[in-house]
Structures are given as structure tokens and as C-alpha cells.
Amino acid sequence: MTLQRCDTIESIRGAVRAARAAGRTIGIVPTMGNLHAGHASLIDASVGDGHFTVVTIFVNPTQFGPTEDLAAYPRTGEADLALCEAHGAAAAFMPAVEAMYPPGARTSIHVAALTEGLCGASRPGHFDGVCTVVAKLFNIVGPDAAYFGQKDAQQAIVLRRMAKDLDFPIALHVCPTVREADGLAMSSRNQYLTADQRRQATALHGALRLAAERIARGSTGAAALEAAMREHLAAHAPDGTVDYIALVNPEDLTCVQDVNGPVLIALAVKVGRARLIDNLMVDPRDRL
Amino acid sequence: MTLQRCDTIESIRGAVRAARAAGRTIGIVPTMGNLHAGHASLIDASVGDGHFTVVTIFVNPTQFGPTEDLAAYPRTGEADLALCEAHGAAAAFMPAVEAMYPPGARTSIHVAALTEGLCGASRPGHFDGVCTVVAKLFNIVGPDAAYFGQKDAQQAIVLRRMAKDLDFPIALHVCPTVREADGLAMSSRNQYLTADQRRQATALHGALRLAAERIARGSTGAAALEAAMREHLAAHAPDGTVDYIALVNPEDLTCVQDVNGPVLIALAVKVGRARLIDNLMVDPRDRL
């Protein structure tokens, strides 16, 4: 089947309407384009669930801060379309910024508390931008299911909360992080790295595994675990600047002092031009 | 046809799903209950447009301020159901507060600028509460069309903006204010009035008509028109306390200095326990 490319809200709605009329259910994979194997795994999941799969490709300006990389963010439309088609997506929705935010637009969605820490602390307004654009995409496409990556753990938790609180009749699926062979989480921002920075960037996953192994061996003190991760990063990514290292409750993102239940270990590190994030979910009841 | 009473999100979704399967389109009339002829006109409009009409009856706590009349707001469920049925509504959705706001709910919708003046100035957070609950109701019911009253003019303008900005695939209809024989706009809060306050309350519509007539005769200065309305209220509603009197652009609710195009004349007056609002749309090109 050929991928349908839709540049307008009207055209994607028409494509979805036709699919519904043909008895299909609809899956959505919201992306900012520059698609890689991580995105492909989300498309695979939606297609595998039998959905008419809509990949949205939109670099959303409202989720970038004024000093962030909106202008530099890689746009690779043709390659993205090829990847969508190769993985069995039915339609790609690639709207213009003016179609999504016409003059006079002034509505935003806020999820309290969950957006204050971790990435929210250093990216004020970021999650309002994410929630608002995802709500718009939900209303434009009207999917039955939506697919997000665990790599953006806080985003997934915030969007799950938004979808529940606003009663979107959509099942949210969070798919495992896809990694390079050396453990680095796939990200469009990895291409900002020089060869040397790229080698150092493996320390993010290294630090997460270090903490996970210590927890598996019985460590419970979050402060000591964070210190060990910070030390690992200093040794293996000397050019990195830590934004945060945190052990948090995966339900409400509150800080954990003692690890005695499931914990989300998350970190953000600036390496050169790239702000990289990664995380691991760890359950201390899965002892080694 | 018998009215279906639905107390849960699942049951109203089931009723709507069955109606859709039978080829019906869906209209929604969001209300806080205590239904009067104003609400009935909205139901009539939806039924008249051929929709399977869902009346939602929910006194939404998040749109009341801490000192407002949430506890006192009249709840008249059985009479409301009778009115719905008499006017041909197909279903009434009457959820519990806990079903709409379960523990942990923390998402809100904000429409900037439009919510700052008029009622927004004296009711901080009110329109966030309105937008959030209406978005929830839209997602629960999934209507094709929604019906609101012109009496709540700012609410209608804010919701129209929200629906457009978030791409809800729903047509919004704003229906004319329904008035008592003496001109008082229908409102659940009218029943808070004593007999004497009720007589004074007709001064709201009187002041609006005074301004409309002067505009029709060629007056254009907003300040003088507002002063004349204030004088009319002082003379005819001596127990009233003006919250605001405003002439605003009906598109963006910015204040108008000179009336040379369509203008929304709006006011809010506290009379006894009741905070009453009313408005008129006036176009000076419709000269007497």
C-alpha cells in the first residue's frame, strides 16, 4: 500500500474518514520527524496492532524555549516518508506551522506538578507546548491508540495524565527505548555530537546501568546512587554538563529517598550542542 | 422516545455509540442543570438540527471561586430530566464529581487574553474551569455540534477560541438570550433574588437597551455610554453593585473607545446574593 502524504488538516481528516469507512481502527505516532529506529519501533507497534497508522511529522515551535534548537532541529522530510512507507504507515501528516498555529491562537494545556521537575525545571513551558500540540493532533486525527517512546519518560507520563484527565478516548502505549549497539538511546539530537562527544555520550546509559546494578545488589540510598552516577559521568563524559540526575516515583515523579519499589532513574546531560536525556525503570524486587 | 439517563462516562459513551451506529449525528448541550427556558432553547436548536441530543447536567466545581455559590447552586435533577424529555433530548449525562475529577486529576486548559477582562477579572480561574470541563465533555460525548447561550457571551467567545485552537471537530452554535417578559435574562441565579431585588434586576436589560438606543441614534463615545448605563442602574437598581460595564470588540474582547463597528455591551451587577450578567450585541450601522 502506498503512503498517503497529507499536508493539510482537511486532507488527513479525509484520509482517516475513508479508513474508518473501510472499517479500520486508527493509530497515531506523533513525531518531530528526522525519524530513526526508535520512531520505526512505534510505527511497527501501531501497524502490528492492526491500525491504519498515521505518523505526524511536525517540529512544534511551542515546545522549544527561546534559546533552544528549534532552527537547528534536523528536517529530513523525504527520508522520513521513505521510513514511514517501509514500516507500513498508511499516512504521514506534515502540516505547516501556520496551519497548526494560525494568527490568534492562544489556548494551552497545563498538567500541574508532573511538569515541574526533571526536564520541566530547565525547559519552562516545554510540556505545555507538548500537551497542546498532542491534544490538537488527537483532535485532528481522532485515533483509537497513540504510541510514544519510553526514552521521553516524563513526556509519556505527562501525556498519559493529560489524556486521562481530559477523557480522550485513546489508548496510550509507551514503547521501549531503542538503543545503539553501545547503549546510547536513539535521538535526533545525537547527530549534533562530534565523534569524541559521541563516545562520551555512552556514559549516560553507563551511569543508568551502574545505578540499576547497584540497586539489584541491594543499594537503596538515592543520594549515594546519584553521587555514583555523577562520578561515572565525570570520568567517562568529561565534556558533559549534568542538568539533572534523579530517582523518582514513576507514578507521580516525586523524588525517591530510599529505593524500595519501582523507581525511574532519569538524567539529562548537555554534551556539546546536544542536550541528551535517558532513563531506566528499575524494580528492586528484581534482585540479581 | 424515552430520555436515557446516564450517570457514568461508560454509559453515555455506550448511548452515543449506539446512536452513531444507527446513523445519528450527535449534539451536546452542556449545562449546570436547574434548567430553564434558556436551556430549553438550546435543546430545541440541537433537536431541530436533527441531532441525537445529549444534555450534560454537571455543577462543575472547578469553575467556582472559593467564595462563590457552589454549595448553594440549585440542583433540581428530576425537574431537569422532565424538561430534557419534553424538549426531545435523547440522553442526559449526570456524572458524579468524583467521576469527572478522580484523585490525581491535574490538567487544565487556559485561553489567554480573552479570559482576563469582564467576568474573568472578578472570577480568576473561572474560564480555565469552564474550558477544561467542556473539553472533557467534548471528549466523553464526541459530538458533531455544541450549543451555548449568548447570555454567557464571554464564555461563548472563549469556548469558540478553545475549540478552534485545539481543533475539536465540533460546530459551535451560540443561541440568543432568552428573557422574561420584562427583559430580565433567564438565569438560575435569578431565584436568589427577593421580590424587590427581582424588580430592580430588570435595570440590567434596561441599561443595555438605553445604550443600544443611544448608539442607534448616533452616540459613539464608550465612556459616556458607560456613564449613562451606570446612572440608569443607580436609579433603577439602588441595591445593585456594579462589577463591570464594558463596551468591547466582540472578536477579541478588547475595550472599544469609539463605537464604529459591532460592539458587545456587557455588564455584571451583584444584586443581593446574585451576581447577574447580561449583554447585547449592537451594530451602529443598524441606525434607527
Structure, briefly:
The structure is a homodimer of 288-residue chains. By secondary structure, chain A is an alpha/beta fold. Chain A has helices spanning 9-21, 37-48, 77-86, 97-100, 119-122, 126-141, 153-165, 195-216, 222-236; strands at residues 4-6, 26-31, 52-57, 91-93, 107-111, 145-149, 171-175, 240-248, 263-271, 274-282.
CATH superfamily of the largest domain in chain A: HUPs
Q: Tell me the overall shape of chain A.
A: globular
The biggest beta sheet of chain A reads: 6 strands, parallel
- Chain oligomer state: homodimer
Give the CATH topology of the largest domain in chain A: Rossmann fold
Number of separate domains of chain A: 2
How many DSSP helices of chain A? 9
* Total number of strands of chain A: 10
Q: Estimate the helix proportion of chain A, in percent.
A: 25-40%
> Which structural category do the helix and sheet elements of chain A fall into?
alpha/beta
CATH architecture of the largest domain in chain A: 3-Layer(aba) Sandwich
Following the backbone from N to C, one meets helices and strands of chain A in this order, namely EHEHEHEHEHHEHEHHEEE
First-to-last CA distance of chain A: 47 Å
Strand order of the largest sheet of chain A: 1-4-3-2-6-7
Spans of at least 5 consecutive residues with low confidence of chain A: none
Q: Kindly estimate the percentage of residues of chain A that lie in beta strands according to DSSP.
A: 15-25%
